[in-house]
Structures are given as structure tokens and as C-alpha cells.
Specification:
Blueprint: E1 2-5, H1 7-13, H2 18-25, H3 29-36, H4 45-55, H5 59-62, E2 63-66
Antiparallel strand pairs: 1-2
Length: 69
């Protein structure tokens, strides 16, 4: 089982670069990159909220649960 981060998918759908998102949400490129590559161990709801606001999406558009049984 795993939580998959689809930030790259949403960025592509919105035709937005990681740099542009970083500027909009005031989160460092390195922190967004860690999230985008799935290496993050956690995300604050406040962070998820500003990302969803900037990308005009729902949390479920970014986070996905997969049961790899």
C-alpha cells in the first residue's frame, strides 16, 4: 500500500511549472520537489490547502492511495 503524489500530473494539466507553483505558494523549490518525487513523509494540511488553491484542484487530485497487494 502506498500514497502516491500526483503533483506532476496536476502541474501538467494546469500548464504550470514547479518554479511558478513555488512562487505562487511561497514554498521552496526543494520542498516542492521532495513532494513531487514522492520522497516526502508527510504534508501539512495548510501546505496542501495552498497548493490546491493555486492549482484549483481538490486534495484527491494530488494524493492517491494504491493498495499494491
Amino acid at each position: 500500500m502506498a500514497i502516491i503524489v500526483n503533483l506532476d500530473v496536476m502541474l501538467a494539466k494546469r500548464k504550470m511549472s514547479l518554479t511558478e507553483l513555488s512562487e505562487k505558494v511561497d514554498i521552496t523549490m526543494s520542498n516542492l520537489s521532495i513532494l513531487k518525487t514522492g520522497k516526502a513523509k508527510a504534508i501539512r494540511f495548510s501546505t496542501l490547502e495552498v497548493i490546491c488553491e493555486a492549482l484549483e484542484c481538490q486534495p484527491g487530485d494530488i494524493l492517491e492511495y494504491r493498495d499494491d497487494d
